[in-house]
Write a structure and sequence with these properties.
Elements lengths: L1 H24 L1 E7 L2 H19 L1 E7 L2 H10 L8 E5 H9 L9 H5 L6 E2 L4 E14 H6 L20 E2 L6 H12 L9 H11 L3 E3 L4 H10 L4 E5 H9 L4 E4 L6 E9 L6 H11 L2 H10 L13 H4 L6 H5 L6 H18 L3
Parallel strand pairs: 1-2, 1-3, 6-7, 6-8
Antiparallel strand pairs: 3-10, 4-5, 5-8, 5-9, 5-10
Helix pairs in contact: 2-12, 4-15, 7-8
Amino acid sequence: MMRRLLLAATALMGVAFGAAGTASAQDRLVVAAYGGSYEKIMRESVIPEFEKANNVKVDYLAGNSSDSLARLQAQRGRQEIGVVLLDDGPMAQAVSLGFCQKITDQKALGSVYPIAVMGDGKAVGTGFGYTGIAYNADLFRQRNLPVPASWMDLAKPEYKQRLSIPGIDNTYGLHTLVMMARANGGGENDIAPGFKVMREKINPNVLAYESSPGKMSEMFQSGEIWLSVWGSSRVAAMKESGFPLEIVRPKEGAVVLMTATCAVEGAPKPELAQKFVAHLLSPAVQVAFSTYYGSGPTSKEVKLPEDVAKRVIYGEDQVKQLVTMDWDVINKNRTEWTRRWQREVER
């Protein structure tokens, strides 16, 4: 009897050690991407299928684009992050700094709109959003205010202390500066008109230069602000919660705001990183983010249900209408513009 018990215990220990060996042998992939609702979608609708199909454990590092780019810079030469997701501006920086390896899945890369291919194929957009003018539709109706139609409408005197714009540390704030420059004879290569308009015409209307999405939402809900420069996905999230927020694409153009991804150069398991990048471009994943996050699909192969399609950037005609930024010029001047913004605009 004792001998049988010992044999059984030994067998169980063998199973346990075998299981532990299998678990320890399982590959791991570190993915750095956004927090909040984006993280929820990744954990529920994107990562489980990838883990199952590739026998891998995905470790998720949540943070905004600045946080993730800073991690890449801190880990240069000893990268732990396999895949990173950033806004298109910071992604352009990541590519220029050598953090992104060329995408190897040419079929996946070929499925996206040309505007979504970045850095000669070293990064790719995974979702289309845009920066426009968000406004409280109920309040505008009650006050008989016309819906904003132009970037320069932000200077209207009736909006005094009722406008919020994110700071220049935020992509929305940067888009605002460039579009103000473009609307007044300048642009990325001549930013002075943008600063002049911000300082003299927009500033009187600004209650707060607020980069926190949570705080921006609170100010809309409390009625402190009536309108803001914000992103389509942020507006979609508030609408989903029942708040009467709408967003318009100004006549001068709504600025494309892509989520973008790349496989990190020098990181462990590059083949898994490349597979994950391709996974993010698959129709099922793209539909999930269109449905639950409000980002338009960058893949031309995606077919959206009608109720989802009408809420996002979808189809070649709408993609062509998006305004792009010259990130090479912007990133070269961003530090100087930030200092100038702090001196002249957000004082």
